[in-house]
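Tokens in:
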């Protein structure tokens, strides 16, 4: 069975070494970097399954690394940081991180989150290469959204949310269902994050051709209807 290959980009050497030992004990292949630029270079030149990425790094911040990586890669990213402000979390997720864990954390929690996103990535959330409704179309092979032929930019979280709604069009999805699918079953935050991202999506897609794509079912959740 192929071992998952993990890169840890963390400038606190004691933490990095601790994580390295724990992950190797769990059967992962592990590489280390203590510097942002070096870590980015390793990601670009390596064949990693997942990145454990510190936010505050010398040379290049974790946010900037995430932004650059997302231009050409869907590699799994978990951010590790001492910051626990909501806007930091939202920014990290918007830039393409799959999860966010705040220091200090229990190693068991980190390992559980890693197993969760690696498992979801293996099973694959998206199978059809085109999803469409009322002039809106998503090519999932290249992760591109168009409305009436015009390209529309989405963050990773907005994209994942829209794809999940489209794959289940006609079905009312609860906030808990959406959280589990888009953010992960072990997401520690409030379900209000769903409402925030629904507003983000509506601001980008509803006004393009005067369509109301996402409908609210009061007290339950959201649905996309034909």
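Residues out:
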């Amino acid at each position: 069975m192929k071992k998952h290959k993990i890169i840890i980009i963390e400038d606190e050497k004691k933490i990095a070494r601790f994580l390295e030992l724990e992950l190797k004990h769990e059967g992962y292949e592990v590489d280390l970097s203590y510097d942002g630029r070096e870590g980015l270079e390793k990601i670009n030149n390596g064949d990693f399954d997942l990145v454990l990425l510190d936010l505050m790094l010398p040379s290049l911040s974790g946010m900037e690394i995430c932004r650059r990586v997302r231009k050409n890669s869907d590699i799994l990213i978990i951010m590790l940081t001492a910051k626990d402000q909501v806007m930091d979390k939202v920014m990290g997720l918007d830039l393409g991180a799959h999860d966010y864990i705040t220091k200090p954390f229990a190693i068991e929690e980190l390992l559980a989150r890693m197993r969760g996103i690696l498992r979801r990535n293996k099973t694959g959330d998206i199978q059809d290469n085109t999803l469409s409704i009322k002039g809106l179309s998503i090519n999932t092979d290249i992760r591109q959204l168009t409305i009436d032929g015009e390209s529309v930019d989405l963050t990773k979280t907005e994209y994942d949310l829209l794809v999940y709604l489209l794959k289940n069009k006609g079905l009312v999805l609860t906030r808990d269902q959406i959280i589990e699918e888009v953010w992960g079953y072990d997401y520690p935050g409030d379900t209000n994050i769903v409402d925030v991202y629904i507003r983000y999506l509506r601001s980008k897609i509803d006004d393009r051709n005067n369509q109301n794509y996402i409908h609210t079912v009061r007290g339950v959740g959201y649905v996309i209807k034909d």
